[in-house]
């Protein structure tokens, strides 16, 4: 099988497939990213075209819509990867992208006799490493059944959201909520700390009270509260502010198109945009607490 896009998420996902006994041919534009996966037994491919040769299943984990569209459909006259993938192949795209892009690529794939599903994930880099991701799948029941044995090696929860693109819609609803709750959690901790409270004690109080949420459980934005959270590692790795900004933008695009009211989602997008402009786009999104802390 082929795996393309070996970043913070794709790298550990590819390693889990390889460890489960699938012979993974791995490709990324970054040689370092490829080397990490090869060190765990995968084979390095020279290009995306090389990776998919002979593959019955292809998994992609790329940053955004434009990367997925350019890879599969081509760009500036260059042919897309669909031309190199054999009919009958299953393509699982786990990137978080616009539902419309998933549908566009799926339509072209279908015309070439290729099964394409969207299967974005939740669970962070910790979930990718542990193989406990949640998959939100858009596609037919038969396509999901084909994907199941592979998804099970990377995740613990697999949901069928609906037809192709529906996984992406579920994903942006979830990430809009996550973006909002990380800002809210950061605000509450910053207020407590400004009043002299110990961030660990305050976080534990809120975790066990009605404010309890995923950030307080696993991903505290204050350094030193959770040893393995990006906040305790200089906000390195994890889920980049610019990726969160992308997802909140996708949610707002959708809200505009459907005339939905998402005031907090819009405000959260503006906060992460300001945080990115201030130079924190490459840091984990929980660094948004820096916007809210007293100097
Ligand atoms: P990342 O930036 O760490 O990795 C993306 C990788 O894709 C990079 O290594 C890059 O070199 C590679 N790439 C880009 N274009 C390529 C191409 N044409 N061919 C081959 N490789 C290419 O990003 P990530 O954190 O792994 O996130 C990937 C996707 O997963 C995003 O859509 C993100 O929104 C989503 N996601 C991330 C997290 C998280 O916690 N990091 C959680 C859930 C979902």
Automatic annotation (TrEMBL):
Residues 165-292 form the 3-hydroxyisobutyrate dehydrogenase-like NAD-binding domain. The active site is at residue 171. It comes from Comamonas aquatica DA1877. It catalyses: 3-hydroxy-2-methylpropanoate + NAD(+) = 2-methyl-3-oxopropanoate + NADH + H(+). Keywords: Branched-chain amino acid catabolism, NAD, Oxidoreductase. Its EC number is 1.1.1.31. Coiled coil: none annotated. GO terms for molecular function: 3-hydroxyisobutyrate dehydrogenase activity; NAD binding; NADP binding. Residues 2-162 form the 6-phosphogluconate dehydrogenase NADP-binding domain. Gene3D superfamilies: N-(1-d-carboxylethyl)-l-norvaline Dehydrogenase, domain 2, NAD(P)-binding Rossmann-like Domain. InterPro entries: 3-OH-isobutyrate_DH-rel_CS, 6-PGluconate_DH-like_C_sf, 6PGD_dom2, 6PGDH_NADP-bd, HIBADH, HIBADH-like_NADP-bd, HIBADH-related, NAD(P)-bd_dom_sf. Belongs to the HIBADH-related family. PANTHER family: 3-HYDROXYISOBUTYRATE DEHYDROGENASE, MITOCHONDRIAL, 3-HYDROXYISOBUTYRATE DEHYDROGENASE-RELATED. Pathway: Amino-acid degradation; L-valine degradation. Transmembrane segments: none annotated. Pfam families: NAD_binding_11, NAD_binding_2. This is 3-hydroxyisobutyrate dehydrogenase.
């Amino acid at each position: 099988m082929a795996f393309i896009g070996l970043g913070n998420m794709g790298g550990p996902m590819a390693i889990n497939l390889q460890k489960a006994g699938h012979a993974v041919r791995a490709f990324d534009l970054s040689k370092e990213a490829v080397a990490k996966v090869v060190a765990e037994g995968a084979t390095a491919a020279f290009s995306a075209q090389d990776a998919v040769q002979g593959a019955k299943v292809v998994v992609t984990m790329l940053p955004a819509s434009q990367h997925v569209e350019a890879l599969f459909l081509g760009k500036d006259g260059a042919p897309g990867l669909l031309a190199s993938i054999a009919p009958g192949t299953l393509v699982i795209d786990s990137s978080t992208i616009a539902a419309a892009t998933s549908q566009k690529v799926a339509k072209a794939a279908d015309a070439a006799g290729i099964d394409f599903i969207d299967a974005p994930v939740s669970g962070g880099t910790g979930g990718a490493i542990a193989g406990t991701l949640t998959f939100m799948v858009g596609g037919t029941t038969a396509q999901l059944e084909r994907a199941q044995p592979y998804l099970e090696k990377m995740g613990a929860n697999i949901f069928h959201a609906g037809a192709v693109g529906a996984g992406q819609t579920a994903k942006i609803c979830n990430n809009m909520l996550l973006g909002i709750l990380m800002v809210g959690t950061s605000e509450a901790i910053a207020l407590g700390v400004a009043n002299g409270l110990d961030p660990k004690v305050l976080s534990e109080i809120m975790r066990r009270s009605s404010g309890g949420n995923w950030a307080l459980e696993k991903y505290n934005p204050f350094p030193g509260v959770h040893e393995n959270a990006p906040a305790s590692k200089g906000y390195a790795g994890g889920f980049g502010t610019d990726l969160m900004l992308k997802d909140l933008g996708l949610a707002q695009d959708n809200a505009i198109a459907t005339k939905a009211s998402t005031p907090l989602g819009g405000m959260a997008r503006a906060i992460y945009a300001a945080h990115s402009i201030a130079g924190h786009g490459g840091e984990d999104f929980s660094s948004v607490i820096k916007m809210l802390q007293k100097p």
